[in-house]
């Protein structure tokens, strides 16, 4: 069983004390944590704050995902949001609701994995809350980051004529999840597809895009390309045209084969960066060691069209992940 709340918080606090980011002036122990944001040159910076749920049965299943994977992915979701703004993460706040009969070993492995990822990106676990859950594990992560004043990359900056780029490859996370959900003898494992079980936030890539002024708008592909591109288009008041053959698809299996195009278009949890850039701006084919692929361009109007190598384009509807969507 999970140990008493006070003891659990004390254990988390001791573990989180290691590697505290200097921007966290006061961490766990008070009603609020105190954050101070100053750039290295002494100028003021803007704070970024994001929050994400990790829910058992929605975002993970204990029979499929290890505690280490769940803890890693819990924090990763927030870090990816910071990356999509071109920011640097500073602190995280974790709230946990746990079933009474959950083994303490599971909780310890979850927390250690989350804190390990936090330390790699200079993030302090600065606070949170715990409660008893009547049904399943619920984790809420708040991540606070910083970006130079007025330099955050928003979803609303795309303009007609801008080109559309994607980092990495798409569809692998949803293909792995689909494989785990089948009754096939062969199951996906963390080694076979680490981007699903232990995805890495594109923090450095987002920073480079912001520092070099390359991206006009950006979002992470947590919900799927079709849905996340629709978010950019809605916020920017534009449309888009994509080339199906240009969309980079993840390869899985033995022998290795590209995933189905539908998974690349609509599958979520790839946590790649989808961004736009002015047409005259040169974007390297690799940034921060990650492949960058040109997949289309921004248009006037509001429709998103997908063009195949042969044949006319058709309207691409957002069919990625959405909570409370009708069946």
What does this structure look like?
With 327 residues, this protein is of the alpha+beta class. The protein has 2 domains: 5-148, PurM-like, N-terminal domain (60s Ribosomal Protein L30, Chain: A); 155-315, Phosphoribosyl-aminoimidazole Synthetase, Chain A, domain 2 (Alpha-Beta Complex). It is built from 8 helices and 16 strands. The protein has helices at residues 5-16, 67-84, 104-120, 172-181, 194-197, 203-211, 225-236, 261-266; strands spanning 24-26, 34-35, 45-55, 88-98, 124-132, 138-148, 163-167, 217-220, 239-243, 251-252, 257-258, 273-277, 286-287, 290-299, 304-307, 314-315. Strands 7, 8, 9, 12, 13, 14, 15 and 16 form an 8-stranded mixed beta sheet that branches. Strand 13 and strand 14 (290-299) form a beta hairpin. Helix 2 runs parallel beside helix 3 and helix 2 (67-84) packs parallel to helix 6. The longest helix is centred in the N-terminal third of the chain and has 18 residues, at 67-84. The chain is globular. It starts with a helix and ends in a 12-residue tail after the last strand.
Keywords:
alpha+beta, 60s Ribosomal Protein L30, Chain: A, 2 domains, eight-stranded mixed sheet, 8 helices, globular
Topology:
Elements: H1 5-16, E1 24-26, E2 34-35, E3 45-55, H2 67-84, E4 88-98, H3 104-120, E5 124-132, E6 138-148, E7 163-167, H4 172-181, H5 194-197, H6 203-211, E8 217-220, H7 225-236, E9 239-243, E10 251-252, E11 257-258, H8 261-266, E12 273-277, E13 286-287, E14 290-299, E15 304-307, E16 314-315
Parallel strand pairs: 4-5, 9-15
Antiparallel strand pairs: 1-2, 3-6, 4-6, 7-12, 7-14, 8-12, 9-14, 10-11, 13-14, 15-16
Helix pairs in contact: 2-3, 2-6
């Amino acid at each position: 069983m999970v140990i008493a709340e006070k003891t659990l918080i004390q254990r988390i606090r001791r573990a989180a004390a290691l590697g505290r980011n200097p921007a966290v002036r006061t961490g766990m122990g008070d009603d609020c944590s105190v954050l101070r944001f100053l750039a290295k040159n002494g100028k003021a910076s803007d704070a970024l704050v994001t929050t994400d749920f990790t829910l058992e049965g929605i975002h993970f299943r204990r029979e499929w995902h290890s505690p280490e994977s769940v803890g890693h992915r819990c924090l990763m979701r927030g870090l990816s949001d910071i990356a999509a703004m071109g920011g640097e993460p500073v602190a995280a706040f974790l709230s946990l609701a746990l079933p009474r009969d959950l083994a303490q070993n599971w909780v310890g492995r979850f927390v250690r994995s989350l804190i390990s990822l936090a330390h790699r990106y200079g993030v302090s676990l600065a606070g949170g809350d715990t409660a008893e859950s009547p049904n399943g594990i619920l984790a809420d992560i708040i991540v606070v980051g910083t970006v130079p004043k007025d330099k955050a990359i928003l979803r609303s900056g795309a303009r007609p004529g801008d080109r559309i780029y994607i980092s990495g490859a798409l569809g692998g996370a949803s293909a792995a999840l689909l494989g785990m959900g089948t009754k096939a003898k062969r199951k996906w494992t963390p080694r076979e597809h680490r981007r699903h079980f232990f995805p890495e936030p594109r923090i450095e890539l987002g920073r480079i895009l912001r520092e070099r002024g390359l991206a006009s708008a950006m979002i992470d592909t947590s919900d799927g390309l079709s849905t996340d591109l629709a978010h950019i288009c809605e916020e920017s008041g534009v449309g888009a045209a994509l080339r199906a053959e240009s969309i980079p698809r993840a390869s899985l299996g033995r022998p290795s084969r590209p995933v189905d195009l539908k998974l690349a278009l609509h599958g979520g949890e790839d946590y790649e960066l989808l961004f736009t850039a002015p047409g005259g701006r040169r974007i390297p084919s690799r940034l921060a060691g990650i492949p960058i692929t040109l997949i289309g361009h921004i248009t006037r109007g509001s429709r998103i069209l997908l063009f195949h190598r042969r044949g006319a384009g058709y309207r691409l509807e957002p069919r990625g992940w959405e909570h409370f969507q009708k069946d």
